[in-house]
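Assess this one:
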Amino acid sequence: MLVGGEWTEERGKAVPDLREPEGRMLVPSLKVQDLIEEIRGAKTQAQEREVIQKECAHIRASFRDGDPLHRHRQLAKLLYVHMLGYPAHFGQMECLKLIASPRFTDKRVGYLGAMLLLDERQDAHLLITNSIKNDLSQGTQAVQGLALCTLSTMGSAEMCRDLATEVEKLLLQPSPYVRKKAVLTAVHMIRKVPELSTVFLPPCAQLLHERHHGILLGTITLIMELCERSPAALKHFRKVVPQLVQILRTLLTTGYSTEHSISGVSDPFLQVQILRLLRILGRNHEESSETMNDLLAQVATNTDTSRNAGNAVLFETVLTILDIRSAAGLRVLAVNILGRFLLNSDKNIRYVALTSLLRLVQSDHSAVQRHRPTVVECLQEPDTSLSRRALELSLALVNSSNVRAMTQELQGFLQSCPTDLRADCASGILLAAERYAPTKRWHIDTILRVLTTAGAHVRDDAVANLTQLIGGAQELHAYSVRRLYCALAEDISQQPLVQVAAWCIGEYGDLLLEGSCEEIEPLQVEEEEVLALLERVLQSHMSLPATRGYALTALMKLSTRLRGDNNRIRQVVSIYGSCLDVELQQRAVEYDTLFRKYDHMRAAILEKMPLVERGGPQVDEEAKESKEARLLEAAPVPTEPQASKLLDLLDLLDGPSEDAQHPRPLDPSPGGALVHLLDLPCAPPPAAPIPNLKVFEREGLQLSLSFVRPPETPALLLITVTATNTSGGDVTHFICQAAVPKSFQLQLQAPSGDTVPAQGGLPMTQLLRILNPNKAPLRLKLRLTYTHFGQSVQEIFEVNNLPVETWQ
């Protein structure tokens, strides 16, 4: 019996005493396989924790005793425990001891533990730098492979700088096994420390001559990383484009190989990576693009598309053709390939094709337009992600020549589309109709169909847009009011439709009763029917407070347009004078007061609404141009100095004109002497406007800055950020954040919204207030976060070219 470190005999046998000096019983430590079986056999989580706690205690005790023979076994069990999610940090130092051991079995487990238990956040990972350096320079191939794997997995920037030279030497080792792992390690180093590109630039040219596909694949990846992070490397590797073209052509002409062929395609992984590298090298470079045009045409026409491997190569070929400066015929071929992808039975391929065509629709609209029937068929896909992409692409394909046919297809889809797509579909149809409507009547009919089908899903401005459209089409007033009355009589659940119908009945109720519309079938409507319909809207539980307000105002306006007695209208108005809704109650009380005290003014107050000019960037631009033209016409009249001065004074209400910014010399004539009337101090001329600045543009989304410096606060700069979207899809979840140097004070106001409508809709604006007391040069850093075409985008950039007037 072993007591206090000595053996004693008991019944003729030498048996170990399983007690520690303190008297506690020791349970024998389990083997790795036995530990796995016992943990898997635990029926409850508590049993599993109990087994792991006991074994971790044994592992700790073994580490404390410093048993070198079984250290790797104990660490292997600890790594399994770590993989189950339990803490294993106490084994980090044991990994370092095993890595420093000369035995391969110890190094293998030690490097594995380092990859699992160590990372850049812990200082202990720096302690293995010397061990990795020794193994890279003096170890066997297997040990070098372990060291390279560990370095490429958890190597920090400091380790990469220290070991770059050793990895560079291994790139040219005779062993393909070591060279392949060294190339992958170099890729990790470039990603961690981009300035190491000069170290790995020379060996890449030699590695391109490799016949080993694994080494060649890693080399292509390394060159891609170098080109993306170093302009000098990009310029250097454009010289090897012919060599890359030859490598890819060899892959195409090589017959079947059991080692590299997949589904009849010769090493599709290597082909895809070469095509990606060619895309980087040929972007914005005419000579490189010309060199690879013939090869890309060969790949596009000879690749087998019956298997997924061939489709992957073909898709990368399409992306390369579209990204470089390829010939026009080649681009049409690429679009046709995407069109064939739309007919594929694989949903993933169809989704990829729709996404790619959506990105192309701005640059190659006519080529994509040829596949419009196939895109429209994809609207009926049961997969929501596919139908959403098809909807976005269909809306982007709408133009003035196909607006009638496309709108009809989209309206058919709107009736049967899923609920989560109805808002996007309805908004897209309304925007397309507003932009490409051939006639006003067609425009009104289109909006009415959308409101009837999916009125609850339209945008908030749909009601205002339709009322403005109807108000501006005087020849269609009778037609519109009859269409809306019929639609309202059939369904009062669509709130936007009810609001527009109530407004139109209130404005043009007299035309509804006349029955003189020639464009639709004759319809005889009685006054009582109109009043009953509006009362039904007021009493409906589906009506919103805003809808009831429209209906109540319509009843009030009908009191001046109907020939009958107004007692029924007065009773309804008086009833809502005690409504719980404060807004509706106030409106009813005011209308009742109008009946009782100001009945003689009621007809004049309730006249038809005047035509309201439609807002928007295009309308504002036209108004500004016409205003400038009027000013230019009025400015050169020298015979009426007083009139011109009066024009300038009145123009101050709208903003400084060109004449006001550059005042002419005072006329010594008596007319000019009026300026000095009573010798009043004249205000200084307003400062010249600061020019706007466009700071961002990507896939139709543009961001511009406009500047204003209030004269009363020269240190304050007001920047209005305006986001516009000319693409075919809405930009959603748009967030603009800004930062300035510490010497400035920045305040961001709330934006006007988080959605930038597609196809030139209303822009989104946000105000930035910047206080610059020291008048220092202004630098602005912006971060944009948004979702476009279903993809989340984040852009961070600095604006250093702000006009001097913003800070001087």
Remarks:
- The radius of gyration is 39 Å.
- Residues 1-26, 616-683 have pLDDT under 50 and may be disordered.
